[in-house]
Amino acid sequence: MAPTLDTTFAALADPTRRAILAMLLEDDMAVTDVAAPFEMSLAAVSKHLSVLTAAGLISQEKRGRVKWCKLEPDALREASVWMQGFGQMEGIDLDAFERFLAIEIDS
Question: Which of 23, 40, 102, 107 would be a feasible disulfide site paired with 44, CB 3.0-4.6 Å?
Fold first, then answer.
């Protein structure tokens, strides 16, 4: 089933998931590396990753014995088009989105 706009915004609503997206802007990461900076269990981080995967914002693949996460920035396109429909929002600039996520993580 294809992710919906509601699924995308629900995934983006959580600060932990936004932080994960910011981390993945740099490069693909192993699940254990994604989990490292968070004070929660690996199982809790895995649930966040499942939400991001269901929304199409990341993909996960197994390479050998390690599960890797990769950002899928095109998944934000539908949300961007929807916001542009209001005429008050501009298209999502991924560099600006990265700066926004960095600010959110620090606050």
Answer: 40
Burial code (b: 16+ CB inside 10 Å, e: under 16) for 73-82 equals eebbeebeee
Rounded-to-5 percentages of helix, strand, coil across the chain: 60, 15, 30
Distances (CA, A) of 98 to 84, 93, 103: 19, 9, 9
Q: How far apart are CA 8 and CA 82, in angstroms?
A: 12
pTM of the full structure: 0.76
Long-range contacts of 1-8 (CB under 8 A, 24+ apart): 2/56, 3/54, 3/55, 3/56, 3/75, 5/78, 5/79, 5/82, 7/54, 7/55, 7/56, 8/55, 8/56, 8/57, 8/75, 8/76, 8/78, 8/79
Is the pLDDT assigned to residue 57 strictly greater than 60?
Answer: yes
